[in-house]
């Protein structure tokens, strides 16, 4: 019998250089995962990445995950990294079953796709042994926060089956604004949005976070496209409305890229 998981997580994976750049504090945070953050070993991992965006929820059903290099113009060494985690076909079908039962009428199966860098870069640092089966679930960026929260809610029973549900994105994600702050430090709009997010989560105002486009300062600036934010809503929904949020890592890069990461601990 697998140990139940009381926690879900949202990890800000920032730049693909997280895979090689020793100067990034977020890299060291993820490397300390099993020792300091979450020693409990999951039976399998359901990971929602902002880099897989589809019209309908999709799960990947493979025996072994390929490593997808979905980034361009980076150092050669990054294209040689591998994360050959086993696939989790049973988890994929169970996730599909739960989603369909909760009213998500169409859930697609992708029998070829491996792990994109939103999945394998953090996982390579957290679970370097690559021995835990991983299934990826896509986001639907044309839908809203409530939709993704409900997606997570539908998947909550997986926690009792020993599955670690994890969202991977970025607390702020405006690639055009990166490095534009010539004076150094964090740009005010990013700081304001990031602080609003932290306060909202720690105070349990999950409905406000679901409606962040209306409620948050500089929402459109922080997330011109919401693909990297919706994995947060899935993690929140899977932990439940009475879950307690905790900020487990915080750092900045390039003036406006927040690496804020959160743990959601279910009340039951």
UniProtKB/TrEMBL annotation:
* Domain Extradiol ring-cleavage dioxygenase class III enzyme subunit B span(s) in chain numbering: 8-264
SUPFAM superfamilies, A to Z: LigB-like
UniProt-recorded name of the protein: Extradiol ring-cleavage dioxygenase class III enzyme subunit B domain-containing protein
Q: Which family does it belong to?
A: Belongs to the DODA-type extradiol aromatic ring-opening dioxygenase family.
* CDD domains cross-referenced by the UniProt entry: 45_DOPA_Dioxygenase (cd07363)
Q: Which Pfam families match?
A: LigB
Organism whose genome encodes this protein: Hibiscus sabdariffa
Q: Which domain of life is it from?
A: Eukaryota
Q: Which UniProt keywords apply?
A: Dioxygenase, Metal-binding, Oxidoreductase, Zinc
Look up the record and name the cofactor or cofactors this protein needs: Zn(2+)
**Keyword Transcription assigned:** no
Q: What InterPro entries does the annotation carry?
A: Extradiol_dOase_DODA (IPR014436), Xdiol_dOase_suB (IPR004183)
């Amino acid at each position: 019998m697998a140990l139940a998981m009381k926690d879900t997580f949202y990890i800000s994976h920032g730049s693909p250089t997280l895979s090689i750049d020793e100067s990034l504090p977020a890299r060291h945070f993820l490397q300390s995962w099993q020792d300091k953050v979450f020693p409990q070993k999951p039976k399998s991992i359901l990971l929602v990445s902002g880099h897989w965006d589809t019209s309908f929820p999709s799960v990947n059903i493979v025996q072994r995950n390929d490593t997808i290099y979905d980034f361009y113009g980076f150092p050669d060494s990054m294209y040689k990294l591998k994360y050959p985690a086993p696939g989790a076909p049973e988890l994929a079908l169970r996730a599909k079953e739960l989603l369909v039962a909760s009213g998500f009428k169409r859930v697609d199966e992708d029998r070829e796709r491996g792990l994109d860098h939103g999945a394998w870069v953090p996982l390579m640092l957290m679970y370097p042994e690559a021995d835990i089966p991983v299934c990826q679930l896509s986001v639907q960026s044309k839908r809203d926060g409530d939709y993704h929260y409900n997606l997570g809610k539908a998947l909550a029973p997986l926690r009792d089956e020993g599955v670690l549900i994890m969202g991977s994105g970025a607390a702020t994600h405006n690639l055009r604004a990166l490095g534009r702050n010539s004076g150094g430090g964090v740009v005010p709009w990013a700081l304001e949005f990031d602080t609003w997010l932290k306060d909202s989560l720690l105070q349990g105002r999950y409905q406000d976070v679901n409606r962040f486009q209306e409620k948050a300062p500089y929402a459109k600036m922080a997330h011109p496209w919401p693909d990297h934010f919706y994995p947060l809503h899935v993690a929140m929904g899977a932990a439940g409305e009475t879950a307690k949020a905790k900020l487990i890592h915080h750092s900045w890069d390039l003036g406006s890229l927040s690496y804020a990461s959160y743990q959601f601990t279910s009340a039951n």
